Structures
1.
Amino acid sequence: AIGTTGFAGMALEIILLFAYQNIYGHLYYKVGLIVALFMLGLSLGGWVMNRLIAGRERNWIILLTILEFTVVLYATSLPFLIATFSSFSAVFIKLEYLFMVLVVGAGWLTGLQFPLVSKILINRDDVGAVAGWVDSFDHLGASCGALLTGTVLVPLLGTQQSCIIIGILNCMSGILLLTYLVQKAR
């Protein structure tokens, strides 16, 4: 799950960078802001999830499954949101700042999963090993997402098909988590 979320987070950030360039015609002097806002979303997501799980014991895999399907919804709705921003950008110049909310949202959804996956795995292993595994799978997913999205998916398939593929990938993770939950319930 954290690998597919890392893939989705980086892929969606790249798609949003491309979309920003296409809609507003200038990216280079805003690229630092866009990346910083994605990182802000990551940290806010992690902070919110840490507050949610602090001192509580629940079946956190259910929440992880819900988050995976939320990433699916975000990824598959992103082309429509981008099209909306594109059609209104000439009329409302300040929509550019609302576009940045999409960037923070992608980071937030990604950041929510780090503490949650860590919480799930810490019960099975030591903290150092869990941190290493979570970080490794995130970086593996993110590097694949960056490489494939920037060089293959968007150039060959376009934004909408790329977002659908990202959604399918996270849907597969969600289905695997659901299968695990059903097996555990038996």
2.
Amino acid sequence: LTYTHLVERLRPKEGRLLLAHFMHDFTPSDWPQIHKSETVDGYEPFCNFISNRFDYLVYGGITAQRDGEALQKRRGWKVPSGDPVALGFDIKPGSPLDPQDDRAYLKELGVTSDFVIAVGTLEPRKNHETLYRAYLLMQQRGLLNKPLQMIFVGKPGWNNDDFLTTLAADERVKGGIITVNPSDRGLDVLYRRALFTLLPSFYEGWSLPLPES
């Protein structure tokens, strides 16, 4: 069965069923340069199908709804009723554990000073390279006389091998910029102990990266 047939089978012969779909964002359409080509190629046909076959859309944030409805109007598709949801805003911080445990964990990661964190998959659209260049610029201008480490928190994603190779080979930032993919427990330690968070993304179409930061 095709996806179309599966969707149509959900509709009752009598009465009414509201067909709803959740849409994270529309960046593969609006920002194709920061996505895989196979994602970009299939995304607008998918959005076309969802827009014209579903009655109601739930969007991952106000920005996603704005972008989605703008795309629907540009392409002449149906613009279903919809509402945004605020993803991640009910996240509660973990209970502080023994400070000695925190220090031991940070030492294990190589954290030896005050630090800041950027949370997100290590891929081009998250724009970690700008933070790397900023760190080098601060070094050149003598702004890091007091030690400060920058921690990239997340796992490697698409099309970032060259940047990660450069980062690992650059002796100027050795020990200064650290990449980690922690457990939830480790992430909680990093959030609680960081001076502040950084969000350098080129564009975010849904709300989760904001509470992540």
